[in-house]
Amino acid sequence: MTIIAMDIQPQRCFTCVADSENFVPYARQAVYELNKQAMYAHRRVLVQNLTILGCAGFCTGGDTTGFVCPMGSTKRAETSGLSGAMNSIGNCDLLPGLPQEFDYDYVMSYENQDKKTASYDKLFTWLKQANTSTILIGGMPLEKGMLEMVLKLSKAGKWRVVVNLAASRGVCPENALQAILAMRRAGATVLANANEFPVLRRQTGRAFIPLHQTA
Question: With contact defined as beta carbons under 8 Å apart, do 59 and 83 qualify?
Answer without folding.
Answer: no
